[in-house]
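Quick check before the chapter quiz. The format below is the same one you will see on the exam, so make sure you can read both the input and the output lines.
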Amino acid sequence: MKGVEYKIIGADGREYAASTLDELRRWVEDGRVAPGTWVWNGEEQRWQPASAWPELQWDLPAVPPVLPPVPAEPGSVNAEFPMRAAAFVIDFFVMAALYQLVTMPWAEEIRALQEASSREWMSAKPDLMVMLRFQVVFLGTYLPLRMAYFVGFHGSLGATPGKMLFGLRVIRMDGEPLSFPRAFGRFLAELVSISALFVGYLIAPFHPEQRALHDLVAGTRVVRRSVG
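Here is the expected output.
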């Protein structure tokens, strides 16, 4: 197997290249490669667990150790917070455009309610019923649309248009794609992140896996395709 390039997905989720089979075998001896480690064979042009490659079977330990979750797509890493924030902004504008489109038949009525609510907000003695009426109408139209958008895209494709633009995907902690029930649970958890003045999102840059509050609650993480 001379001249064949190998790559592995390390325990940290990152991709590492081994220029020769001998180097890869040294990694096995050092414990960097286990039976379940994902290995790329440049000659075969595909990924599979180390134990599935015949040239490594005699080098691997007989009893595989407990391994960290493997990403759904080998070569993916945890998405950084700035990239997630940019995807969030894109989705915000897409959702705003969809909301305007869906509510177009009632645009005048909604605008009138909004203006009345704004006037009451600035009033010395605001009419809470006017303000409540606008909130009920707004949330009654916006939340179902938001649910359809996020649950639909995450449950079917693993990513919203904003995430797709940056090559991001939402997966479960075991590396499997989201089901629709899991996507719905993540949607509800994200409402908590939003209602807590977006504090739930601000957890992500300080978490070792860049997971936000709703990821922690729903057992998910956001990954991106590694270019390295």
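If your answer matched, good. The CA atoms of residues 58 and 104 lie 67 Å apart.
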